[in-house]
Amino acid sequence: MTENRPHVFERLPATADERAVEGRATREAVVDFWTGRYGLPLDTFDGHTFWEKGSGKVWAFAADLPAPADVEALGMTFLRTRQEHWKPTTDAVQRFGREATRNVVELDAEESRAFLAGETQELERWDGDWGYLIAAHEIAGAVEPIGVGLYLRGELRSQVPKGRRRDLD
Amino acid sequence: MDVLGRYEPLVDDPAAFRAACARPLPSVVRVNTIKATPERVRRAYDEAGVGYETVDWHDGLLRLEAESPGNSWPYVHGWVYGQEEVSAVPALVLDPGPGERVFDAAAAPGSKTTQLAALMDDTGLLAANDNNLGRLSALRSNAERCGVTNVVVTKQDARNVSLKPFEEERFDRALVDAPCSCEGTIRKNPDALEGWTRSHVEGIAGVQKGILKRAVEVTRPGGTVVYSTCTFAPEENEAVLDFVLGERDCRLVEFDLPDPLESSPGVTEWEGESFDLSVRRARRIYPHQNDTGGFFCAKLEVGS
């Protein structure tokens, strides 16, 4: 096994058989996560390569470069795989989550504002999975993802990062 | 020092130029077509009761009545980017297509980078470079909010940028939206001209020459380089072009700005110096011509 090099971008191995760094997520598992948990179309990421910089922070990049890549950023931060339950980023959910068919909780206007403000709210009506959901709302004629919510014991905890929270009137 | 007075000999209507520079500018957003269409953004603003008007030369630019475009759902969703309307010009002139390799030499905080990514349909490779860590952080967060995934962010001095991270392969197109004295932003930043000195202009012109020269070098033969600034100073505009025309195999090409955006040709003489006559092919946009900020834009083709 090779050490994780935290300062450069390493490409995710395609499958577990090709894994050189212990515990690193594989491309196969990442695609399975998005298409399985959220029901994204299977070809959603055909044009993207996946990379890790630091431990457990996965990036999606629309092109390819030789690995390792010693650059500041490669596409967008997309998924955190350090914990047992993988966590999508707000930006990834906004970019790719429109196609999601599962684990999307649609919020009304008031709930959406509370979610964007970073609040935890009771949401007894959700009878789907626990864990990280895509929180979305209806705007301008269609449902649009806002960010990631952690649903546990009847509560939806907004995971909108502090710098992205807003109080909209 | 009456900085604007320097440029009165260059403009057709000095009084209108002065008056426009003294007026504040409205808040403008550009629709990020990676995530939304102009129609959907207009509908969202309509639903929210936010007043706007569409800019006549580009349907993806909206002038808002509200002061702070950041406090709305379209901004939260990354559907819009707050940006002065003329600053949308250089990416349109560079006109990159899907799948191309594009270099943005001085990218932060990212208004042009995100526009380039949208023009490329978020495909191909967009190398966005800047040398300032704080500004790079703003670039990254703006790109991510806009859903950009085709960007590689590097931290290099654009004057001697290395192609090593890019497999030593040159780019199809490059944008040099150069750091400048920002005189043309006077309507947005009323103190933009405070602290103006000739030596600052001359110093920054040296940096601009270095960045543009290197951008030409890292662009493939037949490729396109766009040079832009938000300043009126010929030292930072035509003089920079004149220098690079003499140093590297490239030429200035004619281009049309979107109708009905008005502009003036580049100037061939300034304070006793004369420039290559082809700098007339560059475009100067003065604040009184379209009621915008000031801008300068030139398009170059790299020779073999």
Characterise this structure.
The complex is a heterodimer of chains A (169) and B (304). Chain A has 169 residues and is of the alpha+beta class. Chain A folds into 2 domains: 10-97; 103-164, Archaeosine Trna-guanine Transglycosylase, Chain: A, domain 4, CATH 2.30.130.60. Chain A has helices at 27-37, 90-96, 109-116; strands at residues 10-11, 49-52, 57-61, 73-74, 76-80, 87-88, 104-107, 120-122, 131-139, 142-152, 155-158. Chain A has a 5-stranded antiparallel sheet with strand order 1-2-3-5-6. The mean pLDDT of chain A is 94. In chain B, strand 5 (101-104), helix 5 (111-119) and strand 6 form a beta-alpha-beta unit. In chain B, the strands form 3 sheets. In chain B, strands 5, 6, 7, 8, 9, 10, 11, 14 and 15 form a 9-stranded mixed sheet that branches. Chain B has 2 domains: 4-24 and 85-302, Rossmann fold (3-Layer(aba) Sandwich); 26-83, Sun protein, domain 3 (Alpha-Beta Plaits, 2-Layer Sandwich), CATH 3.30.70.1170. In chain B, helix 7 crosses helix 8 (238-247). Chain B is α/β, with parallel strands linked by helices and 304 residues long. Chains A and B meet through strand 4, helix 2 and strand 10 of A and helix 2, helix 6 and strand 7 of B.
Overall tally of structural domains of chain A? 2
- Structural class of the secondary elements of chain B? alpha/beta
What quaternary form is this?
heterodimer
Query: What fraction strand of chain B?
Result: 15-25%
H/I helix tally of chain B: 9
Radius of gyration of chain A: 17 Å
- Described by the principal axes of the CA atoms, the overall outline of chain A is elongated
Helix content of chain B: 25-40%
Summarize the biggest pleated sheet of chain A: 5 strands, antiparallel
Helix/strand/pairing category of chain A: alpha+beta
Low-confidence stretches of chain A: none
How many helices of chain A does DSSP assign?
3
CATH fold-level topology of the largest domain in chain B:
Rossmann fold
- The chain-level mean pLDDT of chain B equals 96
Number of domains of chain B: 2
What is the beta-strand fraction of chain A?
25-35%
N-C termini distance of chain A: 53 Å
**CATH architecture descriptor name of the largest domain in chain B:** 3-Layer(aba) Sandwich
SSE pattern of chain A: EHEEEEEHEHEEEE
Task: State mean pLDDT of chain A (0 to 100 scale).
Answer: 94
